[in-house]
Design brief:
By secondary structure, the protein is an alpha/beta fold. The protein contains 8 helices and 11 strands.
Length: 264
């Protein structure tokens, strides 16, 4: 039986499990219980079958009270399949990166830290393969999901969204000099040691938080594997290319400015 403790810390209510597991997998949600309800059972079953030592955290990023109640109920249903799952319910929204970082910070035992989006765009078996790859690399290794359209790893998304994806990837490389093919895929596994080394340098919490995270790890000498995975566009996404483009570009410029100021 999973032992749960409920406590208040830094203005948030958390439900945290006593666990010795070494992979901490976070699924961030924000008023997104409908998509979590579709993806969660599949991930629970995949984690059960994987045999990996995963502590799965569903991190609610300040959703409405009604949504929090739904998330709590969903997590209880997931636990019937996979016992090592819990919810962290944040009182205030800190955006996707903030929710992921807060959950990772609450789990200092993690040898590897991971996240996967709740929409199911990255399917559960692919997420398991990313974690298996990271574990095979050892405690200082990790694995980044890459959306690459091929017969083996098809991308299912409208042409306009496909073009905006490639355009943004080009901007990321041009502005930051990062080496990863795809910084925005919603499935990553990183070394816990690496995160704890760079955490105090991470300031972005919105759509480009993972660019900053990967760049910080790269500059700290961590080399993460890249693995191509199938991916499909899911309805109800929070990112809108035209509306959010300028904010994302501004974030990239902030990242570059901070590293230039630091002489890197």
């Amino acid at each position: 039986m999973l032992c749960l403790d409920i406590f208040f810390k830094s203005g948030l209510l958390s439900i945290v499990a006593d666990s010795e597991q070494t992979i901490v997998l976070v699924t961030p949600v924000w008023n997104d219980s409908t998509r979590l309800a579709g993806f969660g059972p599949k991930l629970a079953e995949a984690l059960l079958q994987s045999g990996l030592p995963v502590r799965w955290v569903v991190a609610d990023d300040g959703s409405t009270a009604q949504e929090k109640a739904k998330v709590t109920q969903l997590v209880a249903s997931f636990r019937e399949v996979y016992p090592h799952v819990e919810a962290m319910l944040f009182e205030e929204r800190s955006h996707k990166g903030g929710a992921i970082y807060a959950a990772w910070d609450a789990c200092p035992e993690g040898t590897w830290l991971a996240f996967v989006d709740a929409d199911g765009a990255v399917d559960a078996p692919s997420m398991v393969r990313l974690m298996e790859t990271a574990v095979s690399e050892g405690p200082q290794g990790g694995c980044v999901g890459v959306r690459h359209n091929s017969e083996e790893t098809p991308l299912q998304r409208p042409l306009g969204r496909m073009l905006s994806f490639y355009a943004f990837a080009t901007l990321v490389h041009a502005i930051t000099g990062i080496r990863y093919e795809d910084t925005q895929c919603g499935a990553k596994v990183i070394p816990g040691e690496g995160y704890r080394q760079v955490a105090d340098k991470l300031q972005e919490r919105g759509f480009v938080f993972d660019v900053e995270l990967l760049l910080a790890l790269q500059l700290a000498g961590y080399k993460l594997k890249e693995r191509r995975i199938p991916w499909r566009e899911m309805p109800g996404g929070k990112v809108h290319p035209l509306r959010d483009a300028w904010g994302m570009i501004a974030g990239l410029l902030r990242i570059r400015g901070r590293y230039k100021a630091a002489g890197k």
